[in-house]
Each structure stands twice: as C-alpha cells, then as structure tokens.
Amino acid sequence: MATQQGRHFLHIPGPSPIPDRVLRAMDMPIIDHRSAEFARLGKTVLEGCKAVFKTAQPVVIYPSSGTGAWEAAIVNTLSSGDTVLMAETGHFATLWRQIAARFGINVDFIPGDWRRGADPAAIEARLVADKARAIKAVMVVHNETSTGSTSRIAEIRKAIDAAGHPALFMVDTISSLASVDYRHDEWQVDVTVSGSQKGLMLPPGLSFNAISEKAMAASKTNKLPRSYWDWQEMVKINANGFFPYTPATNLLYGLREALAMLQEEGLDTVFSRHQRLAAATRAAVKAWGLEVLCENPAEQSPVLTAVMMPPSHSADRYRKITLEKYNISLGSGLGKVADKVFRIGHLGECNELMLLGALSGVEMGLAAAGVPHRSGGVMAAMAALEARDDGNQASVA
Ligand code: PLP
C-alpha cells in the first residue's frame, strides 16, 4: 500500500470523527473523582445530557460501549420468562434480541427484510392481539446502523397508545442521538439507550440510559440480577455529581465540550445539516445508478446511507480498494447484507466539503474497482446541496 498523506477520511457510521475541540478538551490531567471539581463536571454533564435526550428525567452514563447500555435497559426492567416485542430492522435489532434471549426473555421478533424501519401498524396489531397483556416491553432500534433505516418512533408511540397497551417502550438511539430529532419525554419512551461514538462526536466508551418514572418503578420489582448496571445506586450517587465507581473522567470532559458544541449549533440546525448531507448522498447514489438499501423514502437515514452493490460485485473488495487508493474508510455490510452493501457515514462532525470529498473517494473507488456505474454522483450531490442550502454557513463578510 502506498504511503498515504493527509487526513484519513473516516466515513463509517460511527465511531465518527472527533472534532479538534473535543480532542483538546479531553487532553487534560486526570482529577480526583471524589473532589468538588469532579462533582461540578459530573453535574454539568448529567444535566447537560438531558437537553439532547429531550428529557427532564434521569439520564445515567456508563463507562461502556453501547452494548452495556442495551444490557442495562434489560436487566433493570425485565425478568426472566417475560415476553417482549421487537422488530427485525437489521443487524443491531438482531443483536439486541440475542441479549434479551440470553437473559431468558421470550422475544416476539416481527420479521423484516432489512429495507425499512419498524412498522407501527404491525406493532399495534401484535399489542391488540395480546389480550393477556403478556408483552412487557416494546423494543425498537431508532436508527438501524446496519441498513440506514430510521424507525418512526412517534408513530410507534401512537400505535402503543392506540392499542391501550401498558408495555414499556425502550428505544436504541445509539446511532441517532444528536443526529436525528428524538424526544424521550414527549414520545413517552421509558428507556432510551445511547452511546458516545456517533452523533455525540466522542470516542467510544460512554453509554447512556434515559429513564422514565415507569421504568424506574419497574426496576424496583423486576427479577433479573444486576450490580454494575443497577440504576438505583447510580441515580442516588449521581445526585451529587458522583459515580458509584471510577468514572471515565476524560471522556466526560469530552462530553461537556460536545454538549456545548451541540448547543452552540442548535439541535434543529444539527438535524437539518444531517438531513441535507444525507439527501446529497442519496442524490449521488442515484446518479451513479446504484440503489439505496432503505426502500422507504420516509425512513431513509440522515446518519448513514447503505448502498447496494450490483449483483456479483463484492462490497468488501470495493471497500478495500477504495481504502488503499484513496485513504477512506467506508462501513462494511453486516449480518445478512455482509459483502452486499457498503455504508457511507455522514454524521457528527461532517460538513458539505467533507462529504463531497468522501463522495469523490466513493466514486473514484467505483471506477478503480470496476463496479458498473455512471459518473456524475459528486456533481449531483453538489446540486442537491445547493438546492437545500438553508443558510447554515456563516455569511461571508
Ligand atoms: N445499536 C446500534 C444502533 C449501533 O449502531 C451499535 C453500534 O454500532 C450498537 C447498538 C452497539 O453499540 P457498541 O458497539 O457501542 O457496543
């Protein structure tokens, strides 16, 4: 492989690039995690997170990857032998299901073809049919990172209400939080699961549970054993800005900075930036004559775009060639779509020119790997960006 100059283009759908501001904020001496200085940091981030989850209820922060927060949601609310309802949106829904199954939970997994989000009508029908109210939780992945489909959480909430079902509602926002509009309180989500390494623009290593009163009440009577993940102890000690164990202090410095950046840009501007970049990416895919994996335009992700390879072409071979020639990392296909799709991440610290650079790499890679396509994707993306310019950039003096 030739020596590669310049910055690497990290365009996987998370971990996403870390802004220099966040890197600098983390480059700090460690402090006593039982000191008053730490308590100020703890309180700032624990409170500050709430704006991003759009909640006034407790948010707990674990020093773990997102998988830990998945497990925490389950072990704090459910008991072995319980039934839950999930939707097969893709690889990550499948993994969350496996964790539930390992704890002896029966999962009613609504089958899906990995080309759309969870279907609110199918969820409503299952809940209506559950006369015995055996379903204890509805668990949905908001942004399915393996496919680029975003489920309609507000509509799923309405479906649960329309069925008059008391199930808890748990949502994985690991790849949507701070990139796609999300409202924990308004949508009456009971547990929102999230992670640091995507829209929050931080390194991997922090995960989150936002917890409703109903979920907190369930955690007092459910039967699954837990220790490290236990909410009760965590929330009690968090009240003073501390953690029940050694916290990931420097990641919390980064979180404080990332929350400030999100607040400065404004969440609505952040969301529309993601939508604009996603629309430009889809315009490029269309111009190349390739297909976006997510079939439902209303559910195409603002965070990433999964692109289907033409039959008999290997997505992994294409990604390898593109990485070697152009120093860009694209996301691999996972699970059922392994080697059949590649994923372009356009989340977090990403702007127009970063995206256009990435799309140039994708387009040149298609040519280099001999993948049949039309040229002109980057031009189409530029036209889409110009058409949707909602004045996000600073005006030129
Ligand atoms: N859920 C979703 C939607 C994800 O995208 C990921 C990781 O990419 C996970 C869960 C698992 O999180 P982690 O890899 O941080 O444990």
UniProtKB/TrEMBL annotation:
Xref: InterPro entries: Aminotrans_V_dom, PyrdxlP-dep_Trfase, PyrdxlP-dep_Trfase_major, PyrdxlP-dep_Trfase_small, SP_NH2Trfase/AEP_transaminase
**GO molecular function term, any single one:** L-serine-pyruvate transaminase activity
Annotated metabolic or biological route of this protein:
One-carbon metabolism; formaldehyde assimilation via serine pathway
Bilayer-crossing residues are none
Q: What is its EC number?
A: 2.6.1.45
Required co-factors: pyridoxal 5'-phosphate
Residue numbers binding substrate: R343
Tell whether Transferase is among the UniProt keywords: yes
Query: Does the entry feature the keyword Transferase, yes or no?
Result: yes
Domain (Aminotransferase class V) spans 31-333
Q: What top-level class of enzyme does the UniProt entry assign?
A: transferase
- In the record, which positions carry N6-(pyridoxal phosphate)lysine? K198
| Listed Pfam families | Aminotran_5
Keyword line:
Aminotransferase, Pyridoxal phosphate, Transferase
Q: List the catalysed reactions.
A: glyoxylate + L-serine = 3-hydroxypyruvate + glycine
Superkingdom of origin: Bacteria
Q: Choose any GO biological process term that the UniProt entry carries and state it.
A: glycine biosynthetic process, by transamination of glyoxylate
Q: Which family does it belong to?
A: Belongs to the class-V pyridoxal-phosphate-dependent aminotransferase family.
Q: What is this protein called?
A: Serine--glyoxylate aminotransferase
Which organism encodes this protein?
Bosea vaviloviae
